[in-house]
Design brief:
The chain is built from 22 helices and 6 strands. By secondary structure, the chain is an alpha/beta fold. It has a 6-stranded mixed beta sheet, sandwiched between helices. The termini are far apart.
């Protein structure tokens, strides 16, 4: 009897404990499931930042690591939705390391890598997916686009063909394959393919832009302009499209419309330096064609400010300027050696200064030291003659100012025919550097013809430790 009671008590206690444990475990699972459901709801509502906080909280409590891989994947998705791709990549890699090697996670990682131009890493992920039948189509298209962006058009076509073998009417593969044809000069086939896709996607900016390129390649400039007129409405393609339209108008010999279009192109904000330079340079040629040399010079000066070595901009600008110089100015800057020194000293005298010393340098500079009168306490000045036509930028004037400071002379004069950047002009005003440009120099050269050569001027040579 006693044994029976003991057994009954034991069974009751055991069942009670089992129920308690069951309740505890199931309640924990219910809470976790409930938390994940809340996260899914937040993500569906676009509240990715709030979902992130919730997921990180769940992750911190998942000590056993049962759902760690899944949570890292979800955190990566949140970051990707917020376009924080670098953080998304870290989370996807954590998920893979923790065991989530599903194709969807690898695809998400590949897309995040592509979005921040880590193309080689993305390519390796897509190549892995390409071996899986279910993901072969999307992988082939993405691999093709990577090769297309890298100008490897033959390889790109190979993968677009792989995609079209799986899905012959895939618009993305057809479109990008046609873009490849544009770039390798197969314009007829490109146009044929793109026109089919255009029927489905008439507002596709990239498609319209490449159709414009294809018709331009076929020298059908009017049709090209029609497609560029569509693509330029998209901010991403506006500047490129307007530039290409401008080139088409030039080919059609409608320079007035070319100028109008190119002016519109430079009014847009573009961070593509090479494209901006190409537009400005082409615009300067247009103004030259219509005989507006002043405007052509102004634009070329802008080109040189951006890139002093762009094409033949320097030579062209010097040629324009040379055509406008007086004969005296031309002769002045063509002088060499003692002849130039003598004329330079006479120019200094024509300013009303008394030169007492000069230095020839290893750079394109002649440096003349002068004073305002014969008094021992007369203020001194440095007169720099710069014989190079290359543009003057801020840094060069800093060197001139520092040189003057080192010899305890506060006021300087720079005589030059070169273009001076806006920054350099502002610096000159602040640093008491008086710039004598072409107009003032013409008067000084004319006056110098009536001045005797100063005598008693000492001559030395100096190496300047900065590069012109």
């Amino acid at each position: 009897m006693i044994n029976s009671i003991a057994i009954i008590v034991f069974i009751c206690v055991f069942i009670t404990l089992l129920l308690v444990v069951k309740k505890f475990l199931f309640s924990k699972l219910t809470i976790k499931t409930s938390d994940i459901d809340k996260v899914h709801k937040l993500i569906s509502e676009g509240k990715n930042d709030m979902a992130l906080l919730k997921l990180k909280d769940i992750l911190s409590k998942d000590r056993a690591g049962i759902k760690r891989a899944k949570i890292h994947t979800m955190i990566g998705d949140c970051y990707a939705n917020m376009e924080e791709y670098s953080f998304a990549i870290v989370e996807y890699r954590h998920a893979i390391d923790d065991g989530d090697k599903s194709p969807n996670t690898i695809l998400s990682l590949a897309k995040a890598l592509s979005n921040i131009d880590r193309k080689e890493e993305a390519l390796s992920q897509y190549l892995a997916l390409f071996k899986i039948d279910e993901y072969k189509l999307i992988a082939a298209i993405e691999i093709g686009i990577i090769y297309y962006d890298n100008n490897q058009y033959e390889m790109a076509i190979k993968y677009f063909d792989e995609a079209l073998d799986i899905q012959p009417n895939n618009s993305e593969a057809i479109k990008y394959k046609a873009f490849c044809f544009v770039n390798i000069g197969n314009f007829d086939e490109a146009i044929s393919s793109m026109n089919d896709v255009l029927k489905k996607f008439p507002d596709d900016s990239l498609l319209n832009y490449n159709l414009g390129r294809a018709y331009k390649g076929r020298e059908d400039y009017k049709t090209a302009i029609r497609y560029y007129s569509n693509s330029y409405k998209d901010k991403e393609y506006s500047v490129k499209s307007l530039y290409e339209m401008g080139l088409c108008y030039i080919k059609l010999e409608n320079i007035e419309l070319a100028i109008k279009t190119l002016e519109k192109a430079i009014s847009y904000e573009s961070y593509d330096k090479e494209l901006n330079l190409a537009i400005l340079y082409t615009l300067s040629e247009c103004y030259d064609t219509v005989g507006n040399i002043n405007k052509a010079m102004e634009i070329l000066e802008g080109v040189i400010v951006i890139d002093p070595n762009y094409k033949d901009a320097n030579e062209k600008l010097n040629s324009y300027k040379d055509s406008r110089y007086s004969e005296n100015i031309k002769k002045f800057f063509k002088l060499e050696g003692d002849r130039f020194i003598e004329e330079a000293l006479k120019v200094v005298s024509s300013i009303g200064l008394i030169p007492y010393s000069l230095k020839t340098t290893d750079k394109k500079y002649l440096i003349v030291f002068a004073k305002e009168s014969n008094s021992p306490h007369s203020p001194k000045k440095i007169v720099y003659f710069r014989t190079s036509y290359s543009p003057i930028f801020n840094e060069e004037l800093v060197h001139l100012y520092e040189y003057a400071v080192n010899v305890n002379i506060a006021n300087t004069i720079l005589i030059t025919c070169a273009m001076i950047s806006p920054d350099a002009i502002r610096y000159a005003a602040m640093s008491r550097i008086d710039i004598v440009g072409i107009k003032r120099l013409e008067n000084l050269v004319d006056k110098s013809q009536l001045v005797n050569l100063p005598v008693g001027v000492t001559r030395t040579e100096e190496k300047l430790d900065w590069i012109l």
